[in-house]
Structures are given as structure tokens and as C-alpha cells.
Specification:
Helix content: over 70%
Order of helices and strands: HHHHHH
Low-confidence stretches: none
Number of helices: 6
Number of strands: 0
Shape: elongated
Largest sheet: none
Strand content: under 5%
Distance between the termini: 97 Å
Length: 157
């Protein structure tokens, strides 16, 4: 049975399919944008926290680093020492965090569409990103520690 339309009746809300889809996912897109913004802010805070702790550690042990340098430690050894001391807690935190994420991933699986809750690429990306951020946050104070001149460090106190 054919449908008849009255040509004299105006169309009130004429929209393209793109507009319909955009409107239907606008709330979810906003929520994801907010989650991304908070995640970026958390990443910034994590990087600043690691930088602050390692910088404080270097400053507190300035005399020790100066003595090590006076006794023959090379810049690379001092740099490596500070990096190791800064990255060990980060690595432990990553292990605990990934274990918690794997455990809690089933809770958020309903929010994901077309992606498994245990997608390996996402976990690898997060680990690589956090390690890169921690490496940068530790490298700046480590570079400063490696440049410590023994006589200045010993006169510091």
C-alpha cells in the first residue's frame, strides 16, 4: 500500500544523517572528552610528582653525590644511579597498577564498543607512555646530579 504525503505540509526538522548521529552521540563524546582531559591532567601531575621527588632526592644527597664524584664516579654512573633510584618505584607502581587495571577491566567492559577490555595494545601503550614520562621526569634531575662538581658539593654544607 503506497504512502501518500501532502506536498503542502512543511517539513519542520530537516536534518542530515550526520547531524542525527552527532546529536545522538554528543553526550558520550562529551563524557569521553572530559575523561581524556582528566587523564591528561593526571599524567601531568604524575610527571611533576616524579620530577619533584627525584629532584628532592638529588638535593638531599648532593654531598654524597659529590663524594662519589670525588672518588672517581663518572658522570654516566651518577646519571644511572639517579635514574635507577627514580625508576624503581615507578616500575613497581606500574606493576601494581596494571594488575589492578586487569582486575577492574571487567567492570568497564560495558563502556567499550568494539574493543576488548584486555586489549594488549592499550596496556602496552600505557606502560610505554608512563615509562617515557618517568624517564623524562628522572632524567632532568639526573642530568643535574651528573654535573655536580665535587668541590662545590663538599662546600655546600
Amino acid at each position: 500500500m503506497p504512502r501518500c504525503f501532502d506536498a503542502d505540509v512543511p517539513v519542520a526538522k530537516l536534518r542530515t544523517m550526520t547531524e542525527v548521529v552527532d546529536r545522538s552521540v554528543a553526550r558520550r563524546r562529551f563524557q569521553m572528552s572530559m575523561a581524556l582531559a582528566f587523564a591528561g591532567f593526571a599524567l601531568l601531575l604524575a610527571g611533576l610528582g616524579v620530577y619533584g621527588v627525584v629532584s628532592y632526592w638529588v638535593e638531599r644527597r648532593r654531598v654524597e653525590l659529590g663524594i662519589r664524584s670525588a672518588l672517581g664516579a663518572r658522570r654516566g654512573q651518577l646519571f644511572g644511579l639517579v635514574l635507577r633510584q627514580g625508576l624503581i618505584p615507578v616500575a613497581a607502581g606500574l606493576v601494581v597498577g596494571m594488575a589492578a587495571a586487569l582486575t577492574g577491566s571487567r567492570l568497564v567492559e560495558s563502556l567499550l564498543f568494539g574493543v576488548k577490555a584486555t586489549e594488549p595494545l592499550i596496556y602496552i601503550t600505557v606502560i610505554a607512555g608512563m615509562l617515557a614520562l618517568a624517564l623524562l621526569s628522572c632524567a632532568l634531575p639526573a642530568r643535574r646530579a651528573a654535573a655536580i662538581e665535587p668541590w662545590r658539593a663538599l662546600r655546600y654544607e
